[in-house]
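The protein record quoted in full:

***
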Amino acid sequence: MFRYWSLKWKFFSVFFVCVFLPILLFGTLIYQKANEAVQLQTVKSTEAALDKVAENLSSTMQSIEDITSYLIFSEDMRAYLQAGSSPDQINSLYPLEHRITGFAVFHLTSKPYLHSITVRSLLESRELHIGPSLQDTQKQKYEALAKKADGSPVWSESYSIQSYSYENVEHVVSLYRLIKDINNVNRRIGMATIRLNTKRLYQLVKTDALDGVGELFIVDTHGRIVLHPDENLIGTKNENSLVTEMADERTSAIRKQSTQQQLYITKQIPGIDWNVVARVDQAKVATGLSGVVNITQVMFIVTMALGILALIGFYYTTLRPIQLLTAQTKRVGAGDLSAKMPVRSNDEIGQMSQWFNHMTSQLRLLIDHKYVMEIKNREAELQLLQNQINPHFLYNTLDMIRWNARLENALGTSKLIEQLSKMFRISLSRGKTWISIKDELDYNGLYLTLQKKRLGRSFSYTIFYEHTAAQALVGKQSLQPLIENSIQHGFKLRKKPGHLYIRCFQEEGNLVIDVMDNGKGFEGEDFEKLKKSGYALKNLEERLQLAFKGHASLSLKKLEDGGAWVRIRHPFVTSEEKIEIFMKEEEANDS
């Protein structure tokens, strides 16, 4: 029967049952149980804090393992590890080292807890180290374990290293991983080592929930301390046997050491044989209850008085306007769009009334334009079908010309026609608006190859994308307007050879695409005005905003050596269904 009551009677009933009676009947019991409640709350908050710490640390360690996975599948890395000692192969190492170092420096700068990255070839006496120079005395031990793991990640204990750059001793935990040739999994070609600074790693995952009442630290399955606010304790075995026992169980648990009034809570960290441990001093928690006794007595009296006043005030300020809004909403549901709410205040109820009136006016406006929009959509669909005919005809014609060129032994001409034909195949994309970043880069790579053939040595280009970003979706032919601007305007009247650099990567849930050149740049021109006046830039930005609203951007970055650097950023999506869901969510937010 309760669900059929009006909102007014529901509120009176809930207030009487859930507020008035509990305060009247259980005031004394609340007073007696205050200490127990605070202690229990401390445990719960500590458990929640440990869950967050374990989640953060697991995510951090997984990201480090992902770096080694990228190194395993990187063509540059495999080429570097397998290069021989001939002069030609030695010369090819420099660009490889440059790209690998750039990848490593990117992670070292974006992840301050990273200490250094070392990659060593098992085929040649070659090693690439990025980071402070150091002496790692534990290297042989853990490399042997990594070889036994046969490609699986191996995490070390906390240990100290001698850093020559800063002339001091630092504590690190390291990830060792054997790199094998993905074309021959039995062939071991290298060893990757990533070291993490324990002090900075602890600062990343620590929580303030235990400030003043305890401490937080990380132990391995043998009870040895991995992370601790006191660096002198890192690498030592915890003296408390209870902590060692809980760590060895490799599970989450709560244990109380009553003789010392110490409460230990442990949480297993997913994906790694570590446990995060919180030590809570129950005596310190109890000292925080000095004012609870007096506050409880005062609150008992004050709450009763304020509760009655709140009941009266809430009814006149909230319930009555909501009842009126309900009546007006029923009128709209019945088709009467002339319903309006009187606006008597500027609070949330008043704002709700204003937006209700705005909604009804917008509904009337949308209904007036509904059929016009449907007709325009049908015309756009018909135009799209008609535009697909010419690309099909042109693609088939080019394919016929390519085979005629081969029969006439014009292989160079055949190759160029084949590349142009592939461009039209990708541009057709079965009428799709969104394609993968890999297909988009393949299309532009073919376009740039044809431009390279036309411009010769005066033009070169580089395309780079992260493996994890290959399946991300972008608007078809999003990059070509930027590429054409660089070739037609950026390199115009330039004496030095022009170079175009395109890179794509994933960052904080977004897909980032950079198009950079060494041309004349924008030379002080207002980029925002250029986007509004130029058709290509304006069209590209409108497509981004149509799909992602305020979550996408087209911006200009600064290059120290001159030239143009345009960046596209929008959410990382892998299916058109996700784009549609995203657009619907944005429409819901707008409404």
